Amino acid sequence: MSDAESEIRPAPREDQYKEEYALFDSLMDELSDYAISSESYVHKQPRRLFIQIKPESIRDVVQYMLDTYDLWQLSTLSGRDLGDDLQACYHFFFNDKKIAITFRLNVPREKPEYPSITDLVPAAEFVENEIRELYGLVPVGHPKPRRCELPENWPDNEFPLRKDWEDPRGLMERSKTTGPKPKEEL
Amino acid sequence: MTSSEKRKVITPPRVSIPIGPQHPALKEPGMFKLTVEGERIIDAEVNIGYNHRGIEKLAEQKTFTQILYLVERICGICSATHNGNFAQASEFAAEVDIPDRAKFIRTLTWELERIHSHILWLGVAFHEVGFDTAFMYTWRDREVVMDMLEDLSGNRVNYAMNTVGGVRRDVSDDLKQRHLKGLDHLEERMEYYRDTAIYEKTFWDRINGVGMLPTSVAKSTSAVGPTARGSNVPVDVRFNDPTMAYVNLRDSGEFDMILSDRCDIAGRAVVRVLETIQSIQMCRWLLNNLPDGPIRERVRPRIQPNEVLARYEAPRGECIHYLITNGTDKPDRLKIRAPTHANWVSMAHTLRGGYIADAPITLAAIDPCFSCTDRVAIVDSKDESMELVTLDTLRVRANKWYAENPRRVA
Questions:
Q1: Does a structural domain hold residue A64?
Q2: For residue A138, what is the domain's CATH number?
Q3: Which residue has the higher pLDDT, B354 or B180?
Q4: C-alpha dist (Å) from residue A76 to A102, B105, B185
Q5: What is the pTM of this model?
Q6: Domain count across chain B
Q7: Domain-located, residue A170
Q8: Does residue B375 sit within a domain?
Q9: Which chain B residues contact residue A81 at CB under 8 A?
Q10: A 68-97: CB under 8 A from B
Q11: B399 close contact with A: CB closer than 8 A
């Protein structure tokens, strides 16, 4: 039930979604070298586009969108653990047409690397650092890689938001939901 | 008289001054490393992460109804923001259309929250420039809107107004009359503060031309909220991407986005003050046009696989909840981007080139909310190993300590 295909809920080609489909069709045409059309769609929620792209082409796509559409507003970057792959979603908002565009890219778990876009969009500085420490997704070529959210002495090979992060120090077992520890152990 | 030949030009050395994580000028933990030359700030670096609590990880283990109350605790000032935005994200994911009355009441809570948050900011701004009389005046009048929120929801903070599928409390006719009366009082006071902020020289001279953020920089760093609108960047989710009753408010044609082309702290202050007055008018419009009907729709606890990007204009800017559901009663992934997190990059720009004495008001001008930005707390022990101390452990340790060290009575 939780496979990735079933999440895709494309909108019907109706009048209500006219503007979204107009933008979507022109984008899929112009970005045909970079986009993966089988996983890109217009969402049923109004004003939402999801476009799956090849990981190595993120810089070309962002540069193209900046030059052609002046897509300046990067809202945020969210990561996701898909099992074999890790996913990075760049959420942009297109202010001229008032449509939110999400560029998603999947990278293999063994080598989770893709080019950074911080030099093109300075707003990505903090979020790209954040995804590196929480998911282990490495934006290669980030101008200022540093710790921003986790403590300085957090181990380098642990990424807490991955699904298989199994709490090596047993921190969560002591939480209140599983009951307090007996007094003598404290 | 000294001879001019022997005059020496002294270049002041570059000094690095850390402000924070704990500092009298900051009420919350954040670290700003300023490099100064004399009194000029040459470079600024923002360091966050002192308040990270792991809410995104925790949300993956809780049901949708539980998360409503969890995300509310991200921030005390904008609790209705996260609560309402998560509720609407779940409704979008379940593809449920909630009743109109519920939409109006949810929007009313949001707008009342914006009024209290903006008045709070105005008070803090007055305080940061040393104008404490106005700080106390504004916070006294903020009590009016706090009481209204308590009247509406039962709580002064953490309103818990929303549920998945609607709202939890209805608005009676008596309550409506009381609110209209309170709004009249607030509008009168806010007009007075607007004039105070603009015509009072002691305040205006401290914010005029300070903390410049040019439009181009605001765009490239993706600033949000009043910070961006004070630099003439038209970003306001209420008008650009409206949900709930903002659709009705936009269609009524009575409200427009408030912008300022001043690009300094004065611009941000003017935007906030005018927005407060606009919010008061919006609340009055919502109360006068409140439709009849039920206030909630039943939603099944299991939500079909879906992914939604819910956006809402919080008092500080755009708040995003990216929710992925997988058919169970728990989400697969919840990403929360609170507004202050988007403003850190532009913050470094506003600090550069200013005076060190203006740093507190420049920092306060984006209305920073540190809980907005961080979410995992780890308590370090003395050696390098890490330890997370639970509430139970703390309680036991505290009891032990107090048992060993009985309180001395004078």
A1: yes
A2: 3.30.460.80
A3: B180
A4: 10, 29, 39
A5: 0.84
A6: 1
A7: no
A8: no
A9: 333
A10: 72-76, 78-81, 89, 91, 93, 95
A11: no
In a domain, B274, yes or no: yes
Residue B296 structural domain? 60-336
* Confidence grade of residue B385 (pLDDT, cut at 50, 70, 90): very low
Domain assignment of residue A186, yes or no: no
User: Which CATH number is B167's domain given?
Assistant: 1.10.645.10
In a domain, residue B23? The reply is no
Report residues of chain A scoring pLDDT below 50: 1-5, 179-182, 186
Residue A43 placed within a domain: yes
Nearest residue of chain A to residue B333 (CA atoms): A80
Whether the upstream peptide bond of residue B21 has omega within 30° of 0, thus cis, is yes
Using a CB–CB cutoff of 8 Å, tell me whether B307 touches chain A: yes
Plot region of B330 (φ>0 → left; ψ -120 to 50 → alpha; else → beta): beta
A144 CB within 8 Å of a chain B CB: no
pLDDT at B379: 38
Give the span between the Cα atoms of B387 and B381, in whole angstroms.
Answer: 6
Point out the residue among A81, A91, A176 whose CB comes nearest to the CB of B320.
A91
Q: Is the pLDDT of residue B180 over 90?
A: yes
Mean pLDDT of B61-76: 87
Q: Which residue of B has its CA nearest to A146?
A: B47
pLDDT of residue B375: 38
Task: With beta carbons under 8 A apart, name residues in chain A contacting B386.
Answer: 151, 153-154, 169, 171
CB < 8 Å to A45, chain B: 92, 308-309
CA dihedral B276, B281, B283, B287 (to 10 degrees): 170
Mean pLDDT of chain B: 84
Cβ-based burial of A140 (10 A; exposed 0-12, middle 13-18, buried ≥19): exposed
List the structure tokens of A57: 């082409």
Averaged over B322-342, what is the pLDDT?
Answer: 87
pLDDT at res. A3: 46
What is the ipTM, given to two decimal places? 0.84
Mean pLDDT, range B210-231, rounded to an integer: 88
Nearest CA-CA distance, residue B139 and chain A, Å: 32
Contact B386 A47 (CB under 8 A): no
Q: pLDDT value at position A186?
A: 47
Q: Which residue of B has its CA nearest to A123?
A: B221
Query: Tokens 């706090």 sit at which residue?
Result: B146
Number of structural domains chain A divides into? 1
Give me the domain span that covers residue A49: 4-163
Residue B31: CB partners within 8 Å, gap ≥ 6? B18, B19, B20, B21, B46, B47, B48, B50
B98 occurs within a structural domain: yes
